[in-house]
Amino acid sequence: MDKCLCAQNVCKAYKDNQVLSGLDLKLEHGKIYGLLGRNGAGKTTLLGILTAQNRLDSGSVTYGGEPVWENRRALDDICFSRELSGTQYSGTNNFRIELYLKAAAMFYRHWDAGYAERLLKEFSLDRKKAICKLSKGQMSMVTIIVGLASRAPFTFFDEPVSGLDVVMRERFYRLLIEDYTETGRTFVVSTHIIEEAAGAFEEVIFLDDGRIIEKAPTEELVSEFAYISGLESEVRKASAGLEVLNTSSVGARTVCAVRGVAPGFAPDADVDVTPMNLQKVFVALCGHGDEM
């Protein structure tokens, strides 16, 4: 049976700031998940707890039924590739990329040295260059190499494309999908750049105010949402029985975001119906009234 990574009733606070509250989450083997949330929603904290890099206040995280915390058997199958900071290495100018990757090779049981070499060439990185001398984008490339070459069955990326231009961001998602197709690993990717990543996500997880408010197959979730626009009376008629998430008016025209549409939705009203993309769905659910 494939192992799952499960969080149950997880709570975490920093002083008076309750970051995660009674959070439950089950991550299955062999999927690419997108973890989406606004700034301060608790995404990095959650990733740290799932990978045993942060302590939780209460609750549990298990992998294959065993606790993750200080469990070598579980941690051998988990990689959290998180953002590097140049200030971390200000006193170690001789800590080069090649040494960083050698350290990763010792830590990750499934490490693929040949793949790491190919990725160095893919990103045109100089193995002799010190981490503290890298640009923000180059640091992101190093974290991507570690995450992919770890070959860990459960691999987590926190803002992996930070600092990368659009060409390199697309290259990352191409590499991610290629590796997933080859290995069937589980990936969890936290990102703020939603729409260009949407095609890679089999499932999405929405984190809002420390709780999981949605976890669903991406296409299935997006298909439930639409914009209905037209005269206010017609929009009201068309949206009857649906969940109205957001409404705005410009002159005589009203637009509302709704949830609960079925395939082939065609209301008996003089309105326009426009599908939403993943980013718009996220704003509708997590925007707390912000304009669409």
Task: Describe this structure as you would to a colleague.
The chain is an alpha/beta fold. The protein folds into 2 domains: 215 residues, Rossmann fold (3-Layer(aba) Sandwich), CATH 3.40.50.300; 63 residues, Alpha-Beta Plaits. A 6-stranded mixed β-sheet has the order 6-7-8-3-9-10, with helices on both faces. A 4-stranded antiparallel β-sheet has the order 2-1-4-5, covered by helices on one side. A 4-stranded antiparallel β-sheet has the order 12-13-11-14. A hairpin with a 2-residue loop joins strand 4 and strand 5. The radius of gyration is 21 Å and the shape is globular. The two termini are 43 Å apart. About 2% of the residues have low confidence.
Structural class: alpha/beta
Parts with pLDDT < 50 across at least 5 consecutive residues: 86-91
The strands making up the biggest β-sheet line up spatially as: 6-7-8-3-9-10
- Give the proportion of residues in helices: 25-40%
Q: So what's the overall shape? A: globular
Q: Terminal Cα separation, in Å?
A: 43 Å
User: What does the average pLDDT come to?
Assistant: 92
What is the fold's blueprint, element by element?
Layout: E1 5-14, E2 17-27, E3 32-36, H1 43-50, E4 58-63, E5 66-67, H2 72-75, E6 78-81, H3 97-107, H4 113-122, H5 136-149, E7 154-158, H6 166-183, E8 186-190, E9 203-208, E10 211-217, H7 218-222, E11 225-231, H8 232-238, E12 243-250, E13 253-259, E14 272-275, H9 278-286
Parallel strand pairs: 3-8, 3-9, 6-7, 7-8
Antiparallel strand pairs: 1-2, 1-4, 4-5, 9-10, 11-13, 11-14, 12-13
